[in-house]
Amino acid sequence: MLAIALVDRIGSGLWASVSVLYFTYVSGLTVAQIGTLAATAGAIGIAGAPIGGHLADRFPLTRVLITVQFLRALASFALLAGDHYALLLACSAVGGLGDRASSVLTRLYATRVAGPDRVRYQAVHRTLANAGWAVGGLAAAAALTLDTTTAYQGLLAGDALSFVASALLTLRCAEPPSTTRTVTGSTTPAPATKPTGPWHDRTYLAYVATETVLFLDDAVFKVGLPLWIAHASHAPHGLAPLLLVLNNVMVVGLQVPLARFGATTAAARALLIPLSAAFALGGATMALSATGSAVTSTLLLTASAVAFTLAEMLHATVSWELSVALAPETAQGAYLGVHGLAQSAQRSVGPLAVTAAITTGPLGWAAFGTVIALTCMVQHRLVRERLTRSPLSVAPVTVSEH
Description:
By secondary structure, the chain is mainly α. It is built from 17 helices and no strands.
């Protein structure tokens, strides 16, 4: 499954950095059409997480994942079929739905297989995923030097083939144990009670709401830093891509070592305190970067990038562990699907939040970091009662095959 993550992200790296250029130069779309395309795919993609989790609680997880991967491949290949706007819109929407569903399904697979070692698994997974993005991005940059329609189409085809390869590799993965499904022919009786539903769990829904805020670090690197460097700081514009490289290198090099500090549920919850400090520091250094010379701005922006990357890594560990620990074993798929809504919603809310901070100026960034820091503390208190009356780790579960 780790190999699948690497292959999947290499394909995504090929396409993510050139999708706008493809729709502009190959499909001939206007800026407004491209914006509508992206917004539609993002909006429909939000439903992918809960749908994927719901299906995984009722059908074999590997079969659902294989189906989703082939669906993503079909959507990508269909983009090559023509430049009719309605077709492109439909294919992008299906691709967005599959993307969010596959993210939840691979996470659920890891949860069921890795058991108590799920935090370390998550760290290795993120490391390989970031490495895959980097490899795909470098390959895309090399292909773009050709600046031909064939080069763009080749990158899209490469993305589609990565999904096919992921589906074929998933065929080699064993079905993980699950408490929500009884294998056909098993003599084990079905559970007497129905799984708890996340939509009626107020604590979990409140937790997901706080998670939406904590995921805003993603928008900082994709939108906030580049715009702030271009419009409000004295740092050179070429610093923006360098800070993105720094982010990627830090995640690849430090995600696994940092994971040991959140190896248990109690430790993961405790990490919310340093996570709060990292967000506050990131916002403060962003605010101060607008007041100094070019050298000072560069140093402060670099410090901000380090702080937000540290926050990203800590939150990845905390989020992975708490989202599972707060979910009952009998409905992990449904619960993780609802948790996936936080990251999906952030893709819409995040750009608005960081542009609001940029428009407000230095005080906006200070407020941005402070609000997220306070949200960390709110989450720290919110999950305390649930965790103290539930096991701090998920016991391994086996399912009889005969």
